[in-house]
Design a protein that fits this description.
The complex is a heterodimer of chains A (114) and B (114). By secondary structure, chain A is mainly β. Chain A has no helices and eleven strands. Chain A has strands at residues 3-7, 10-14, 19-26, 30-38, 45-50, 56-59, 62-66, 70-75, 84-92, 103-104, 108-113. In chain B, strand 7 and strand 8 form a beta hairpin. The chains are: A mainly beta (114), B mainly beta (114). Chain A binds chain B through residues 31-32, 34, 36, 42-46, 49, 51, 87, 89, 91, 95-98, 100-107, and chain B through 4, 31, 33, 35, 41-43, 45, 48, 50, 55-56, 58-59, 91, 93, 98-108.
């Protein structure tokens, strides 16, 4: 069974204080790893997809990296508007019918203060 | 439409009543997913559609839950004889083809069973 574990559960940073969020995964074969941002009362918003170990993607202050066992979301010089819950999900290889679902972690709740 | 649309945004129902939740995916997206998010918890997979068929129904928690999709577009999630543990936010997502492509989420329907 595919599993995704995110740490820490919650993280409080001061504005400008860089840090990293971790996503460890166990999957029979990785098709893709996805990062989402979720604001309170809203649906998850897509950030990145990573497909193979060594791949990196960047968007503004966020950078996602992938190894064979985990992914990191690095936040550089965060701002208060980066406060949200960050979700990681994996999609496994296999039959396109039964393996297309995304398995999510429980998220890291990030709060950035002034 | 421009994004995934779900209706209603909020639904309060009495225990034992049936409810229908609707999802309008992004036009042209063949893959559609339903997820459930209980308060403070992660996203729980319910069902996956490819076109109008559902190759993966493994997440439906009981036979009180059913879903259909018509015209490779709109999907309806039906919960019969609702119970208090069904209270949650029900999220719908669509993706271009369900194969290594990102899924885009709607805002969700908050269901409260009283």
């Amino acid at each position: 069974e595919d599993q995704v574990t995110q740490s820490p559960e919650a993280l409080r940073l001061q504005e400008g204080e860089s840090s990293s969020l971790n996503c460890s995964y166990t999957v029979s074969g990785l098709r893709g790893l996805f990062w989402y941002r979720q604001d309170p009362g809203k649906g998850p918003e897509f950030l990145f997809t990573l497909y193979s170990a060594g791949e990196e993607k960047e968007k503004e202050r966020l950078k996602a990296t992938l190894t064979k066992k985990e992914s990191f979301l690095h936040i550089t010089a965060p701002k208060p508007e980066d406060s949200a819950t960050y979700l990681c999900a994996v999609q496994a290889r296999g039959d396109t019918g039964t393996a297309s679902k995304l398995t999510f972690g429980t998220g890291t709740r990030l709060q950035v203060t002034l | 439409g421009a994004g995934v649309s779900q209706s209603p945004s909020n639904k309060v129902t009495e225990k034992g009543k049936d409810v229908e939740l609707r999802c309008d995916p992004i036009s042209g997206h063949t893959a559609l997913y339903w997820y459930r998010q209980r308060l403070g918890q992660g996203l729980e997979f319910l069902i996956y559609f490819q076109g109008n068929s559902a190759p993966d129904k493994s997440g439906l928690p009981s036979d009180r839950f059913s879903a259909e999709r018509t015209g490779e577009s709109v999907s309806t999630l039906t919960i019969q004889r609702t119970q208090q543990e069904d209270s949650a936010v029900y999220l719908c997502a669509s993706s271009l083809d369900g194969w290594k492509t990102e899924a885009f989420f709607g805002q969700g329907t908050r269901l409260t069973v009283v």
